[in-house]
Amino acid sequence: MSNGGGGDEDAGTKRVADRYLKREVLGEGTYGVVFKAIDTKTGVTVAIKRIRLGKYKEGVNFTALREIKLLKELKDPNIIELIDAFPYKGNLHLVFEFMETDLEAVIRDRNIVLSPADIKSYIQMMLKGLSFCHKKWVLHRDMKPNNLLIGAEGQLKLGDFGLARIFGSPERNFTHQVFARWYRAPELLFGTKQYGSAVDVWAAGCIFAELLLRRPFLQGSSDIDQLGKIFAAFGTPKSSQWPDMVYLPDYVEYQFVSAPPLRSLFPMASDDALDLLSKMFTYDPKARITAQQALEHRYFSSVPAPTKPALLPRPKLKGDSGNDKIPDLNLQGGPVVLSPPRKLRRVSAPDGTESNIHRAEKAEEIPPTGLRRHTDENMSSQSSRIPMSVDVGVVFGTRPAPRPTLNSADKSRLKRKLDMDPDFGLVRHFVLVWTMSFECCLLGHYAARHPTLILSSLPAYYMPRRLATTYSMLAHVIPPPPPEEELSHDDFGEFDEEVNEETMRNAEWSEGLEPANPE
Amino acid sequence: MAANFWASSHSKQQLDPEEVDVVPAADRERGITTEEFRLVKIHMSSHIWRLAQQVKVRQRVIATAITYFRRVYTRKSMTEYDPRLVAPACLYLASKVEESTVQARLLVFYIKKMCGPDDKYRFEIKDILEMEMKLLEALDYYLVVYHPYRPLLHLLQNAGITDLTQFAWGLVNDTYKMDLILIYPPYMIALACIYIASVLKDKDTTSWFEELRVDMNIVKNISMEILDFYETYKVDPQRGLSDEKISPVMNKLPTKA
């Protein structure tokens, strides 16, 4: 490549690879910096990801490679377009179409009112993109609102294919450590290694619910808690509902809870919306509706018709004036049921956590800084008024917990080890009881169902700390987890040479026949 | 992308037979003939194969690596892109793309072990990583490749001649010593291998082929190419081409600076 300008750190009018006029940095992600740029050939604004080369000599970042590989094949109006890729000064650069915002920003912008038609439009675009992926035998595996990008014309597109992969061949094991926890399907939480497009549909269902509720639907604080939240919403699955459940690797029996009427969870949703939701949240992945079937559901043909993308409400962008022109009264107009303080507190949540960094990965995902600062201030003043011992947010599931991202997988893997290793059976029981009781003390109405409330009298803040120390105490006795056949995202983030060599040695080698990967 | 080869980038990148054995200008200047160009590709394909056996990766990874290797030389010269480095770099890239990563340092280690004193084949990790980036560009970032293995199994099952699997599978492996994968759709290659296998093993598949409604001329052409290849080269499956045959050609190529 011809090297045009000097140091490419400074945003300005530097040319990258003689073609792109560099503008401001939009964010820093797990594997590089994203900046805005103008393509001088076409005059179009683009977002360029500069892929950092790994410091552990692993060459081109694995996640980036996945994105390149799959996005070169997936060309669809509802999937982010990879326009170009080029090496420049030893770094790989990926050029994407520029996206203004993302669905998470829409959901949490309290100035936005989402009509049922708007929600329908978003869900339809999401399912169209997803159905296209599945037709091409690609699993997205990281569906969540901030990976659903929104363009200047209001079109929604699936982004971030860093975890996606080709599926469809039997007997290939995949890692179950995919998706941010709140969007993880029950089969993944039970540790399945063979799964299909149904996992994306479950996550899509969670996003649908989140659009209706204007807050994340199932906010588990651990994998076990996540399952608890799912079962509390839809009832503990019976084996008649999901015959394969008991054979899953991490299956644990949960106390039976019956499902509350779905209507009670989504008071504002239409009957058709509820019917579609219930089909997307079907426990048995084999019986769960597919993305394509969902698109054919009567929800999309009944009134109101989905809003045209260009007419969808969008969050205020940086530079837009009149930030607070819209009165708060508007909140009562739509299906927003949250009161402002809680809403604000949720926005503030991830502070200096990994998820924050992860979120900043994509330019398009960064909320307008002005707006964010504004809410942050509000927030801190709000939270200081809330007494420390009783966390109202937790009780209502609107706790300002950091949105879990994949990085939380490391911890949960340790936990899984605890859960599964027979030597730690006791510990597992202890942890389970503890987690259960933790939940109990938080969710009052479940208390009656769990008899083991030994610890519930302890103050709530005490629990997580104790749990954390238990884990850290055990950490040094626990052998490292067995290498997974497939290296996930995180494995490469924390490149462990030992484990990788081991993985390599264990890699299958078949002289004759092998179940080949999908063609 | 199991279902749709036709909508894939692989299908759009298919070449005509005349396009694949074109010796790049820079190589021609060094006196490399079409035949020698072909020999280098055969030699390096088995180099990739042997290296892959050392580091133990799935067969699919090898097939993808060789496809990359052959694609590169439809666009780049061997003078500029040293095949001795491109080969392990293709294996490295393919292992990542097919989700069974092999570390670059292991490749370096096994190359040393395999090639012994011949330091023309020796490279450092940094060489492989640099070449990886250049490869991505040379491949125009198209990384998904389809192979005949999967259609082969389906077709054999459909024809009810699964007892030929082992033999036909071996034939498919050998097709990677040619440029067929750049020219024909994978299932046609699979069909050609089934055709050869059934003729050699005296299985009557005529009526089955008739029902398939594929262009039998293409299947027969591919089969002839495969048989011609066996006749012409007689490549030793373990050692590849003989030294006397390949060394003079390799010596025409520049060695690393």
UniProtKB/TrEMBL annotation, chain A:
Name the catalysed reactions: L-threonyl-[protein] + ATP = O-phospho-L-threonyl-[protein] + ADP + H(+); L-seryl-[protein] + ATP = O-phospho-L-seryl-[protein] + ADP + H(+); [DNA-directed RNA polymerase] + ATP = phospho-[DNA-directed RNA polymerase] + ADP + H(+)
- Annotated residues for binding of ATP: L26, G27, E28, G29, T30, Y31, G32, V33, V34, K49
Give UniProt keywords alphabetically: ATP-binding, Kinase, Nucleotide-binding, Phosphoprotein, Serine/threonine-protein kinase, Transferase
Q: Which GO terms describe its biological process?
A: positive regulation of transcription by RNA polymerase II
Compositional bias annotation for Basic and acidic residues: 317-327, 356-365
- Name the segments for region: Disordered: 306-384, 499-519
Q: Which residues form the Protein kinase domain?
A: 20-300
SMART domains in the record:
S_TKc
- Please state the Enzyme Commission number of this protein: 2.7.11.22, 2.7.11.23
| Entries under InterPro entries matching the protein | CDK (IPR050108), CDK7 (IPR037770), Kinase-like_dom_sf (IPR011009), Prot_kinase_dom (IPR000719), Protein_kinase_ATP_BS (IPR017441), Ser/Thr_kinase_AS (IPR008271)
**GO molecular function, a single term:** ATP binding
Q: Where is the active site?
A: D142
Question: What GO CC annotations are associated with the protein?
Answer: cytoplasm; transcription factor TFIIK complex
Family stated for the protein in its record? Belongs to the protein kinase superfamily. CMGC Ser/Thr protein kinase family. CDC2/CDKX subfamily.
Entry protein name: Cyclin-dependent kinase D-1
The organism's taxonomy opens as: Eukaryota, Viridiplantae, Streptophyta, Embryophyta, Tracheophyta
UniProtKB/TrEMBL annotation, chain B:
Q: Which GO terms describe its molecular function?
A: cyclin-dependent protein serine/threonine kinase regulator activity
Key words of the record: Cell cycle, Cell division, Cyclin, Membrane, Transmembrane, Transmembrane helix
Which Pfam families does the entry mention? Cyclin_N
Q: Which organism is it from?
A: Lolium multiflorum (Italian ryegrass)
Q: What family does this belong to?
A: Belongs to the cyclin family. Cyclin C subfamily.
> Which SUPFAM superfamilies does the annotation name?
Cyclin-like (SSF47954)
Q: Source taxonomy lineage? A: Eukaryota, Viridiplantae, Streptophyta, Embryophyta, Tracheophyta
BP terms from Gene Ontology: cell division; regulation of transcription by RNA polymerase II
Write the protein's name. Answer: Cyclin-like domain-containing protein
List where the protein spans the membrane: 181-200
**SMART domains from the UniProt entry:** CYCLIN
The record places domain Cyclin-like at: 46-137, 150-228
